[in-house]
Amino acid sequence: MNKDRLRYLFQQYQRRSQSSVEREEWLSALSDHGLETMLHEVMGEEWGKDVAPEDAITPAAAADTYEHIVQQPQPAKVRRLWPRIAVAASILLCCTAGAYLWRENSKPILTGPAVAQDVAPGTSRATLTLANGQKIVLSDDLDGEIAKQAGVQINKSKNGVLVYTVAENSDQPANALNTLSTAKGETYKIILPDKTEVWLNAASSLTYPARFTGPDRQVTLTGEGYFAVAKDKQHPFKVNTDQQQVTVVGTEFNVNAYANEQATRTTLLEGSVKVNAGPSDILIKPGQQSTLRNGSFRVQEVDLDQAVAWKDNEFVFDGDDIRYIMRMVERWYNVEVIYQGAISREKFYGGISRYENVSEVLKSLESTQKIKFRIEGKVIYVSTNL
Q1: CATH 3.55.50.30: which residues of the chain?
Q2: Which of 66-75, 76-85, 108-117, 308-317 is predicted most confidently?
Q3: Closest Cα partner for 24 from 34, 9, 14?
Q4: 314-384: CATH number
Q5: How far apart are CA 329 and CA 318, in angstroms?
Q6: How much is the pTM?
Q7: Regarding the domain delimited by 123-306, which CATH topology (the fold level of the hierarchy) does it fall under?
Q8: Directed axis angle between helix 36-46 and helix 3-14, to 10°?
Q9: According to CATH, where is 2.60.120.1440 located in the chain?
Q10: Which string of b and e fits 313-348 if b means at least 16 CB within 10 Å?
Q11: How far apart, in whole angstroms, are the C-alpha atoms of residue 102 and residue 88?
């Protein structure tokens, strides 16, 4: 691939105008080590150019950006980069050599190789708790039939998915509840009795009946889950969390309801969703995210790739601060994070694969020269690089 073609693909990405063929070509170029130098040159040359009107960010994002600039004034030369940084925030350049990362006042940085001390990433693993209290650890060495209950067969497939199958003509009630839970450093996928698919993130749990009966299909979620709900207009699917209830008929959406996060976020990919919290009801459309904070809802357009990146085993930072990022790191790598001294208010944009060891993630953050890390066993110390 020549430089002009690479420049064209980069420009098309920035304009969000890539065709499906161009996107495949672009992703292939990103993973080609032979194009790394040329990619640096193209991005360096294109980074400071003016943004076309169609590339403008949403009013809400622009307002947030403006407020931060007012609070932390930047040189005029740097301010001109803000719109382009916001447009590029969702890009994932996960090459084998490392990952691209943006700071609020910098050009993209390509990180280097891993450091010596390391923590391995999480894995596909979970614990199934049956209604009778029996616990079954779902690991790689466990396949086939796991249990039977109330006319329902439970199997673990070879590709690591828990599958519930209801026997034909079964009229046995299934009021007993099962719970699938993941610890820190674990993730798992389950196919529920109604064929709804659920991806469960680390440090999460899903409680559900072995067989759905009654007028609706209700489950309870803690932590984070991505749902691809099987369509059944006669039996709405409801996801209950500590703060809200999500009601759908058949759609795909993500719910982030971790107890240590300040808000509960519901992101809709397709279909329609009603979110309820006490006396408040809202409807969200595809591409929107509802944020429930202190009993009040806010709805905004979001980058869907960023919102559900974890499902595809990717970290994506979109203006996130170090505390939010390190909470994700804690859950996925099963580590403890300790802050030393003042905490940086830096915000980060970019992405890296969740398959990488923790050192790769930390090294990409350190490349901004604003944060420093030290790993001691399963403890990560975070300090501001003054």
Answers
A1: 314-384
A2: 308-317
A3: 9
A4: 3.55.50.30
A5: 15
A6: 0.72
A7: Jelly Rolls (2.60.120)
A8: 50
A9: 123-306
A10: bbbbbbbbebeebbbbbbbbbbbebeeeeeebebbb
A11: 9
